[in-house]
Amino acid sequence: QMNFTGDQVLRVLAKDEKQLSLLRDLEGLKPQKVDFWRAPARPSLPVDMRVPFSELKDIKAYLESHGLAYSIMIKDIQVLLDEEREAMAKSRR
Amino acid sequence: LERSTSSFSYSSYHTLEEIYSWIDNFVTEHSDMVSKIQIGSSFENRSILVLKFSTGGSQRPAIWIDAGIHSREWITHATGIWTAKKIVSEYGKDPVLTDILKAMDIFIELVTNPDGFAFTHSMNRLWRKNKSTRPGIFCIGVDLNRNWKSGFGGNGSNANPCSETYHGPSPQSEPEVAAIVDFITTHGNFKALISIHSYSQMLMYPYGKSLEPVSNEKELYYLAKDAVKALHEVHGIHYIFGSISTTLYLASGITVDWAYDSGIKYAFSFELRDTGRYGFLLPATQIIPTAQETWMAILTIMEHTLKHPY
Questions:
Q1: Could you tell me if B166 and B159 are in contact, meaning their C-beta atoms sit under 8 angstroms apart?
Q2: Which of A23, B87, B103, B242 is 20 to 30 A removed from A2 (C-alpha atoms)?
Q3: Contacts of A11 in chain B (CB under 8 A)
Q4: Whose CA is closest to B297, among B199, B240, B227?
Q5: Helix (H), strand (E), coil (C) string for B81-96
Q6: Measured distance CA(B59)–CA(B190) in Å, rounded
Q7: Pairwise CB contact (< 8 Å): A4 & B12
Q8: A4-35: pLDDT as tens digits
Q9: How large is the average pLDDT for residues A64-71?
Q10: What residue in A sits closest to B161 (Cα-Cα)?
Q11: What span, in angstroms and rounded, lies between the C-alpha atoms of B223 and B204?
């Protein structure tokens, strides 16, 4: 079972098309690192992306340096996964 | 494993084995209306199962509902299971559903990507694609919602096998997609198709492959409007709606475009909850409310299909 301890999901609100393409560039800059849960679509829609713990510092620096406003939607994915597995085990019992 | 569906928890997530065991119990308990059809086998040779709801007749006009084409979207399988149970419990009580089933059949594919779904339980909870591998290709899996013939390989899909939206080597190269294509094409009388995804609370219709409106776009727009209104009235959840390319983004090789281009005029794609706290990790406590509201939208679409034969 892959472990996602420390991985976070960042919610980014791109102001315009230019900022959206900066986000799309991330897929090329960090191949197989950034996992878009809600892919860059249009300025009115948020972009949610899962970032591995090891990449957090780089990615946040990239967002800040390009003036991309973001919030932390999920602080530690593994915490939610543990809760989900516990709920399944409890239900099974 | 459960001995009957009565002890099955509809407000919990389940493994593939538990779902397939539930299917067998469910079919046994409702054999007057429900049957199980294996439409093919997945890349890793798991059965691909469809539930058929029919009150008689043969080759009746039909409605297709699929869930779980992206395996990490667990809320979709859970919603599909609850919906199946709802159909058998409401038949004979709900006049709209009863009229639908007196004239049409309903087919539900609960786990459209069984290999990926099993993988989310065993190894990687956030796996999206199927598990196909090919000689010389380093990354595993194809995005099954980019592998359909309509617009294959266009904008909004990726030729890079390591991408999450990798379209695969050719249209319908994936057994999970080919099985549905063969089944729906052979049946030849499907009138509506609903493909259930998560998350972002949207109800969308073709096209994804281009900005060009479909011929009955106005009809689909107002039907989607009615459906999201019915959904909102249950728990107050807001959905946006419209064509995929104008509401979300360009996406090529997708299920609903293939369905529409194959003559199924009422083709819709749901993006269920989450509102933006949990994403794909929607807590199990939200399964029932999500299924309840989705049911009202699905019923709206099915009723429209019944009343507008073509």
A1: yes
A2: A23
A3: 276
A4: B227
A5: HHHHHHHHHHCCCCHH
A6: 9
A7: no
A8: 999 999 999 999 999 999 999 998 888 888 99
A9: 96
A10: A32
A11: 11
Residue environment code for B24-59, b if the CB has 16+ CB neighbours within 10 A, otherwise e: ebbbeebeebbebeebbebbeebebbbbebbbeeee
The reply to whether B73 belongs to the active site is: no
Residues 101-140 of B with CB under 8 A from A: 122-126, 139
Per-residue pLDDT averaged across B262-277, rounded?
95
Task: Choose among B118, B100, B12, B19: nearest CA to B63.
Answer: B100
| ipTM (interface predicted TM) | 0.96
Catalytic residue among B73, B271, B293, B303: B271
Calpha distance B173→A62 (Å, rounded):
38
3-state class of A24 per DSSP? Answer: helix
- Give the C-alpha separation, B263 to B192, whole Å: 9
Q: Which residues of B touch A1 (CB under 8 A)?
A: 122-125
- Start-end of H helices in chain B: 16-29, 74-90, 95-103, 114-122, 175-187, 217-235, 244-247, 255-261, 287-307
Chain A residues close to B13, C-beta within 8 Å: 84, 87-88
pLDDT in tens, B160-217: 999 999 999 999 999 999 999 999 999 999 999 999 999 999 999 999 999 999 999 9
Put simply, the answer to whether B9 touches A40 (Cβ < 8 Å) is no
Residue B207: asked if its preceding bond is cis (omega within 30°), the reply is: yes
| Predicted confidence band of residue B275 (pLDDT cuts 50, 70, 90) | confident
* CB spacing of B279 vs A48 below 8 angstroms: yes
A27-36, B39-48, B242-251, B266-275: which has the minimum mean pLDDT? A27-36
